[in-house]
Design brief:
5-stranded mixed beta sheet, globular, about 15% helix, 3-stranded antiparallel beta sheet, disordered N terminus, 4 helices, disordered C terminus, about 290 residues, alpha+beta, binds zinc ion
Length: about 290
Amino acid sequence: MCSATASSGRRWDGSPARPSRSRALRVTPDSPTRLVRSAQPGRCPDCGNRIDRYPCADSADDGRVVPLHPQELPAAAVPVTSRWHVSSGTAHPAHDGSPWCRIPHATLCPAQPAPAVLTPQITTLRRHMALHTRRFINNGAFTPPAAQPSPSPTTTCRPVRPVIHLLRVLRLAPRPIDTIQCVSQTRQRRRCTRPVFDPDTPGGIWTLLPAPTAGRRPPCPANLMAVYDLAHLPYAEQLRWRHQHCPDHAAPGAADLSLVEWEPFDPLLHRQHIHSRLPGRPHTHRP
Ligand SMILES: [Zn+2]
Ligand SMILES: [Zn+2]
């Protein structure tokens, strides 16, 4: 038996047997997201528990990402102020009226202070999360930031999760500045492995800025914290950092394979990442 495709160039049903050409994935310019997937699963860098990261709908800070607990919980077991829901791939800080809701990971994270308002069910879940963290640490699967090896006097000092100043907002970075990975998708449909930091272009300057205070009180000038300041860069370059792109993917059009990993800096939640002195070797590349 011989193949009809080989002899006629057509399949058995008469359709052309031309090999299909793969097309590069593009994101339309007016798309609200450059992401090709919705929830981004990952691990909390502070406790090692699973999280799902979503773009946040209710934020003046455009493009903010919020980590949510991966499972839905009965709404009755969650304090009203912690009830979220996900709609069209976006996290909303409000209850949608269903019997179930999502909850921000920060409410459950055992590395963060417990919220003022808790229910017995959430207290129990927080305890389970703390046990998970303990098990991850015992198994060697997770090392909390505070236990990561501190630099010796002969090595350079760098914060594990530095605070950056970008587009007039303080944000907490997921890892040391020069290891933050581009989130774009390559032509091979994998996440780009290049870092956002580029030693050949002007970068940030480590500086001491007044640490913000909780609530609406103004920062106290006497309390200084080390910040990787990018605010002096051109707007396009700050946008590149904001979108967590390497120089190759700075131009619009490429799809992203991951959400950006910056978190809005919160002086209460992130107080363990406040450092009052500058790193040993600043990444300073003045224009
Ligand atoms: Zn956590
Ligand atoms: Zn890239």
